[in-house]
Amino acid sequence: MEFLDEDVAVLQITERELKPGGAGIPVSEKNKKEYIERMVKWRIERGVAQQTESLVRGFYEVNVVDVRLVSVFDARELELVIAGTAEIDLADWRNNTEYRGGYHDGHIVVRWFWAAVERFNNEQRLRLLQFVTGTSSIPYEGFASLRGSNGPRRFCVEKWGKITSLPRAHTCFNRLDLPPYPSFSMLYEKLVTAVEETSTFGLE
């Protein structure tokens, strides 16, 4: 933004190529998905790029820990190592969860979901939280203060998909899309697989 005087501001538009030569490539149905993925990646990274670079530079310059020791962790594990673990208050989590798509607190699939979460150990619960929200950190004030990409956003479980699908997460919205599995054992198996074996999220 350029300021001309105290009362008038002129917005300056700057174009950025999302890939080399991108300015000369029109968006079409054929490349729309790639465009959206690159745009989302750029929007997410631009807000934290400088902070991330400073953190990484400081991490290596100060020799907080030997780089070879850190390289064995994936991003989720490293967050748990740095942030530590906290005991999750299941009652607080459940009391501050909303439901969509026909699910409600008494729905059998939702009851199975919470039974599965109760069966999880604390590390698995933190991984579930990280899978859905993008972080394993719990706000100091509890789950009522959970935040999404654009402000306060409660944990949400939404009915979605076919029973052959794995649950999926929308980290910007703290939402778990949970198919209406016909049994507790199937729900438990699919939930564990999604949380432990995947790192994907849905885009809206």
TrEMBL record:
Q: What GO terms in the biological process aspect are recorded for it?
A: protein ubiquitination; regulation of dendrite morphogenesis; ubiquitin-dependent protein catabolic process
Pfam families attached to this UniProt entry = HECT
GO molecular function annotations of the record: ubiquitin protein ligase activity
The pathway that the record names for this protein is: Protein modification; protein ubiquitination
Does this UniProt record's set of keywords contain NAD?
no
Q: Which reaction does it catalyse?
A: S-ubiquitinyl-[E2 ubiquitin-conjugating enzyme]-L-cysteine + [acceptor protein]-L-lysine = [E2 ubiquitin-conjugating enzyme]-L-cysteine + N(6)-ubiquitinyl-[acceptor protein]-L-lysine
Q: Which UniProt keywords apply?
A: Transferase, Ubl conjugation pathway
Q: Which InterPro entries match?
A: E3_ubiq-protein_ligase, HECT_dom, Hect_E3_ubiquitin_ligase
Could you name the active-site residues?
172 (glycyl thioester intermediate)
The HECT domain covers: 1-204
Listed under GO cellular component are: cytoplasm
Q: What is its EC number?
A: 2.3.2.26
PROSITE patterns registered for this protein in UniProt: HECT
**Could you tell me the superkingdom of the organism this chain comes from?**
Eukaryota
Q: Which SUPFAM superfamilies match?
A: Hect, E3 ligase catalytic domain (SSF56204)
PANTHER family associated with the record = HECT DOMAIN UBIQUITIN-PROTEIN LIGASE (PTHR11254), HECT-TYPE E3 UBIQUITIN TRANSFERASE (PTHR11254:SF442)
Name under which the protein is recorded: HECT-type E3 ubiquitin transferase
Q: What is the species listed in this Swiss-Prot or TrEMBL entry?
A: Fundulus heteroclitus
